[in-house]
């Protein structure tokens, strides 16, 4: 399939998923087509990736950063702006388990991308069994090649709506900036509830359109195996990180400039980055060049744009009647 057709199917699917007033997905057939487009988009992103790339918008919160620096004293010397890692840290921080309680616990990240965020978590919770799952085979191949080690950190290819894990088998499921592309969000939550052990935790961070947020709010109210215990709107913190990243000379921009790529790919990549990495969410107006490239189908024309970015934590209730 051509790049422009992949982008068209991806953006149409995103619109169908995120713009319906009640957040309901696009139906099974369109959903499966959309998943193929999603995996192709992230396969392309993986092909142009470098070691250390994390694919989320990031957040900036002084308190979170100070805590990371306390737990990892060398963090300031990492070659990163630290914004994406803050989202990962937040994901575990709000789960009521101490970092020293993770030894021997099984943690799954659904939608792990290149696995670098999970690799960061492995520094916070040594001794935990961490598994990353993603729909993109190219992302998983890279994660395996760059990061897999025997025991501790493994990666599998799979679909969030069909998790290849036994019932009641995992302690914690992490999901960061991925679920807005799942056609059937309710099914994903049912899968998480199935694979978590009773008393296990889901920590979920993502963008929300109004419809998608209404859907989650409705699902949270339904009595089911997940009991929702925490919610925080982190839109302001995410916007701060994006604005800092878009500033000329930022670490994010320098890392992109350092990638080896032909000029056309650099121009397209720069515009796609603005479209994909939240520039509009953070209030940056679209340039004429971006609009033209979108019209030509050369960068994704995202339309169902989110209006908030939120963190939720849920626990699988214990002792459910069979
Ligand atoms: C924006 S990236 C975020 C990656 C990572 N969580 C992070 O924060 O950097 C979204 C990821 O979700 C994955 N994804 C999308 N749909 C998926 C699905 N149905 N099942 C599993 N992974 C999926 C994509 O392939 C991509 O790697």
Automatic annotation (TrEMBL):
InterPro entries: Erg6_SMT_methyltransf (IPR050447), Methyltransf_11 (IPR013216), SAM-dependent_MTases_sf (IPR029063). Pfam families: Methyltransf_11. It comes from Streptantibioticus cattleyicolor (strain ATCC 35852 / DSM 46488 / JCM 4925 / NBRC 14057 / NRRL 8057). GO terms for biological process: methylation. One of its GO terms (molecular function) is S-adenosylmethionine-dependent methyltransferase activity. Residues 108-202 form the Methyltransferase type domain. This is Methyltransferase type 11. Keywords: Methyltransferase, Transferase.
């Amino acid at each position: 399939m051509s790049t422009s057709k992949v982008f068209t199917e991806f953006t149409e699917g995103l619109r169908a998923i995120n713009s319906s007033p009640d957040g309901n997905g696009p139906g099974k057939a369109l959903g499966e087509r959309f998943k193929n487009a999603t995996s192709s988009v992230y396969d392309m992103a993986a092909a142009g990736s470098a070691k250390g790339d994390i694919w989320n918008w990031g957040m900036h919160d002084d308190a979170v950063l100070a805590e990371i620096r306390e737990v990892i004293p060398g963090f300031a010397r990492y070659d990163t702006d630290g914004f994406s890692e803050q989202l990962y840290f937040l994901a575990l921080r709000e789960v009521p388990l101490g970092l020293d309680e993770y030894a021997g616990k099984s943690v799954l990240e659904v939608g792990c991308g290149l696995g670098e965020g999970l690799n960061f978590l492995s520094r916070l919770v040594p001794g935990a069994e961490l598994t990353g799952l993603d729909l993109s085979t190219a992302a998983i191949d890279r994660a395996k090649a760059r990061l897999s080690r025997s025991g501790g950190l493994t990666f599998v290819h799979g679909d969030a709506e069909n998790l290849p894990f036994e019932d009641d088998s995992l302690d914690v499921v992490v999901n960061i900036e991925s679920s807005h592309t799942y056609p059937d969000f309710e099914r994903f939550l049912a899968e998480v509830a199935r694979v978590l052990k009773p008393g296990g935790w889901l920590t979920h961070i993502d963008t929300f359109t109004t419809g998608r947020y209404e859907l989650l709010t409705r699902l949270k109210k339904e009595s089911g195996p997940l009991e929702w215990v925490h919610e925080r709107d982190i839109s302001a913190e995410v916007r701060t990180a994006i604005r800092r990243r878009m500033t000329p000379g930022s670490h994010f921009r320098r890392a992109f400039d350092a990638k080896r790529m032909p000029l056309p790919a650099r121009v397209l990549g720069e515009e796609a980055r603005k479209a994909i990495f939240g520039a509009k969410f953070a209030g940056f107006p679209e340039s004429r060049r971006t609009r033209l490239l979108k019209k030509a189908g050369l960068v994704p024309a995202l339309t169902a744009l989110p209006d908030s970015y939120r963190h939720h934590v849920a626990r699988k209730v214990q002792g459910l009647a069979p």
